[in-house]
Write a structure and sequence with these properties.
By secondary structure, this protein is of the alpha+beta class. The strands form 4 sheets. A 5-stranded mixed β-sheet has the order 3-2-1-5-8. A hairpin with a 2-residue loop joins strand 2 and strand 3. Helix 3 runs antiparallel to helix 4 and helix 6 crosses helix 10. The radius of gyration is 27 Å and the shape is elongated. The two termini are 29 Å apart. It binds dinuclear copper ion. The site of dinuclear copper ion (CUA) has 9 residues, from loops.
């Protein structure tokens, strides 16, 4: 409930997760296929169930009237041919439309963007149970930006497409990246590289979630895609690329943070914290949520998370470090400066 209320700040969750309101070309192709397959299979369902119900009712009346069984027919060649040919034809049609949609939604062999576009390339790494995003390049310029859980992308405009190409990898088990309004599910498989792409002119927040069971907290491996104005996106990207800000007022907090084992797993660029196992915290305050989208990123939630992550997200790979109240306050005050 808490989760629902939280996410509804940006409109109804059900609507934001609906494949019926696509906001990208691949989303539209998938909706078209979905409706066609639903219509065909729905039609088959109605015909089969209709014949079944009809014969049930009809023959019940006959038995009640004391009539004898109708003649039993064995081995009718026309019927055999009909019910072999009809399903074959239907399966063939389904195969063709599915293959065409598959062709439409996959990126080309070299992720070749259309001429005049400003493509964004991001590597997505699925981890138990959060998402790591490594920004590789945007509009021909290279970036080396690592962030977590909230994927910022630029909106497209007429005449200025900004396609987003995702390279999907896994650090542990199979996950699946799924933002229903932007595109189909694509798996992240250990030892394999998968690709997908999307492009949208619609600004705002798009919700998604891991769509392949990956362990205890699979259900709370949420995805947030923020589609920004291009200028705003560039500002965001430039800020993410910077090392952490040095705020003298948080010097004691920084010392407390660096003294703890946080640094073994987390990185804060520009400091001695260089862990690569857990989310990069260099600009953790630029994110709206914590723990892969399950709680808002407020000082209280941050403190609760640091005090005992297992209370917030049971089974997550961050243990409780039994920090004193004083250390908690200091570390929260430091993290709050990482904008
Ligand atoms: Cu990751 Cu389910």
């Amino acid at each position: 409930m808490r989760l629902l209320l939280f996410a509804t700040a940006d409109g109804p969750v059900s609507q934001n997760l609906s494949v019926f309101s696509p906001a990208s070309p691949s989303g539209e192709a998938i909706r078209g296929l979905f409706i066609l397959v639903l219509a065909i299979t729905g039609g088959i369902f109605l015909v089969v169930e209709g014949v079944l119900v009809y014969s049930l009712l009809r023959n019940r009346r006959r038995v009640a009237a004391g009539e004898a069984e109708p003649p039993q027919v064995y081995g009718s060649m026309p019927i055999e041919i009909a019910w072999t040919a009809a399903p074959l034809l239907i399966v063939f049609v389904l195969f063709l439309v599915t293959a065409r949609t598959e062709w439409e939604v996959r990126p080309g062999p070299d992720d070749r963007p259309p001429p005049g576009s400003q493509p964004l390339y991001v590597t997505v790494i699925g981890r138990q149970w959060w998402w790591e995003y490594v920004y590789e390049s945007y509009d021909g310029r290279e970036w080396h930006v690592t962030t977590a859980n909230e994927l910022h992308v630029p909106a497209s405009d007429d005449g200025a497409p900004r396609p987003v190409y995702l390279t999907l990898k896994s650090a542990d088990v199979v996950h699946s990246f799924w933002v229903p309004r932007l595109g189909g599910k694509t798996d992240l498989i250990p030892g394999r590289v998968n690709k997908m792409w999307f492009q949208t002119a619609e600004r705002g927040l798009f919700l998604g979630q891991c769509a392949e069971y990956c362990g205890t907290q699979h259900a709370k491996m949420l995805i947030r895609v923020v589609v920004d104005e291009p200028a705003e996106f560039e500002r965001w990207l430039a800020n993410e690329a910077k090392p952490a800000v040095e705020d003298p007022s948080a010097a004691a907090g920084k010392k407390a943070f660096l003294a703890q084992s946080c640094v073994n797993c987390h990185a804060v660029r520009g400091t001695a914290a260089r862990g690569t196992y857990a989310p990069d915290l260099t600009h953790v305050m630029s994110r709206q949520t914590l723990a892969s989208g399950i709680v808002p990123n407020t000082p209280d939630e941050l403190r609760r998370w640091l005090a005992d992550p297992q209370q917030v997200k049971f089974g997550c790979l961050m243990p409780a470090f039994q920090l004193s109240d004083q250390d908690l306050d200091l570390i929260v005050s430091y993290l709050r400066t990482l904008r």
